[in-house]
């Protein structure tokens, strides 16, 4: 990174006043004013989406230094999630130009006023989960659905070489050499955890694990079907196995991903290209169906089939995010009569400070797999190749690595 702007010293007195502001909308207001008054930052390379469904463009962009409550991280790894691809392909609309990427890890280089959770030099995981800790949802342990407003929500820290605003995609903008995020979005890493594997914890791993352990609260001895065996699905598989599921039935259209699911703890793998999955699940459960169906892909057909796999008293957990306009239907009378449930699971309802630390510990003990999720490693200049591999379904997770 190269320094591009210089500090405007006359505003240091204002920034020091922000030390007393700790959370919520007051912090957002102070941070917005601080960023407006400040005239400093760094130049970083980033992959910019200027047109939906077109290749990303590598550009030099300006990244503002952190405001109050914010942290700057020099990235070492950023994984390619299917959500980034859906955004870049226009499946969810939104503002462009944008810098996507939200599953990352790196080293803290600078902290803003009032930051207490981390210091410069610390290795961290960077997530999209931005939370105040005090709103109604945060108080209910639903920090992924925090209701507070933040300065970074209102004013992007990214500008292109002409000074035009670039959207900070998914509140992170991690397809870049560095990011500025709110301190609530980061979790510290112990020494020795590889950055490329740690980056996966920021989304795919916590989403798959949390769907099982937090959203579903799956009891030991349950029967489970996981529809989709990509980065999220495989983590639902290994979470269900780790938590003591009696059967873990993995379903995918790729035989290779079915094999991967077996290695992650699935008891059975169904190739949906050659076998009718609902019938197969019913056969494997003696006609009963499964207690939980975790749909980890955004395909309409997967949602449509999930209800037919479900046992009485069971739950369908909707994890995958379809493109805008994709709808499914179900018989509410049958659902009620069978005491069945539909559960939405955003980011696995994760408490990132608790869950990521637990997952790191499990990884260090050899109880969960992270390294095996990585299909390929790419330089930022090759990001379009990395995304194409995920888009074609050939990769579990491709990771952008930075020197």
Number of helices: 14
| CATH-assigned fold name of the largest domain | Quinone Oxidoreductase, Chain A, domain 1
Helix content: 25-40%
Tell me the structural class: alpha/beta
Shape: globular
Query: Which CATH class of the largest domain is shown?
Result: Alpha Beta
Low-confidence stretches: 1-39
- Main sheet, how many strands, which sense, barrel? 7 strands, mixed
Task: Supply the CATH superfamily name of the largest domain.
Answer: Medium-chain alcohol dehydrogenases, catalytic domain
Radius of gyration: 21 Å
Mean pLDDT: 89
CATH architecture of the largest domain: Alpha-Beta Complex
How many discrete domains? Answer: 2
* Share of β-strand residues: 25-35%
What's the total number of strands? 19
How many angstroms separate the termini?
Answer: 11 Å
């Amino acid at each position: 990174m190269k320094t591009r702007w210089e500090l405007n010293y006359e505003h240091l007195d204002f920034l020091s006043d922000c030390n007393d502001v700790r959370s919520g909308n007051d912090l957002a207001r102070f941070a917005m004013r601080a960023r407006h008054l400040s005239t400093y930052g760094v130049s970083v390379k980033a992959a910019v989406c200027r047109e939906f469904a077109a290749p990303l463009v590598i550009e030099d962009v300006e990244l503002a230094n952190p405001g109050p409550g914010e942290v700057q991280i020099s990235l070492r790894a950023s994984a390619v999630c299917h959500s980034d691809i859906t955004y870049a392909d226009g499946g969810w609309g939104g503002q462009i130009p944008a810098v996507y990427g939200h599953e990352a890890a790196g080293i803290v280089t600078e902290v803003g006023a009032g930051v207490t959770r981390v210091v410069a030099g610390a290795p961290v995981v960077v997530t999209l989960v931005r939370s105040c800790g005090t709103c109604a949802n945060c108080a209910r342990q639903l920090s992924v659905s925090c209701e507070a407003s933040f300065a970074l929500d209102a004013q992007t820290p990214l500008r292109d070489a002409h000074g035009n605003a670039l959207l900070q995609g998914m509140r992170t903008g991690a397809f870049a050499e560095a990011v500025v995020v709110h301190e609530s979005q980061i979790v510290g890493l112990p020494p020795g955890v590889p950055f490329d594997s740690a980056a996966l914890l920021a989304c795919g791993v916590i989403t798959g694990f949390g769907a099982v352990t937090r959203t579903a609260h799956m009891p030991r001895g349950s029967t489970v079907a996981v529809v989709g065996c990509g980065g999220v699905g495989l983590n639902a598989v290994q979470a269900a196995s780790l938590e003591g599921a009696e059967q873990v039935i993995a379903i995918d259209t790729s035989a290779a991903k079915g094999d991967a699911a077996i290695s992650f703890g699935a008891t059975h793998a169904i190739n949906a290209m050659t076998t009718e999955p609902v019938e197969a699940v019913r056969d494997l459960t003696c006609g009963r169906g499964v207690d939980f169906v975790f749909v980890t892909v955004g395909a309409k057909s997967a949602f449509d089939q999930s209800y037919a796999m479900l046992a009485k008293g069971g739950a369908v957990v909707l994890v995958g995010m379809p493109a805008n306009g994709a709808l499914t239907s179900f018989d509410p009378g049958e659902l009620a009569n069978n005491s069945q449930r539909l559960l939405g699971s955003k980011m696995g309802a994760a408490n990132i400070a608790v869950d990521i630390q637990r997952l790191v510990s499990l990884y260090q003990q050899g109880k969960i797999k992270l390294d095996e999720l990585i299909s390929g490693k790419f330089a930022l200049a090759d990001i379009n190749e990395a995304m194409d591999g995920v888009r074609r379904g050939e990769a579990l997770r491709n990771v952008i690595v930075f020197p």
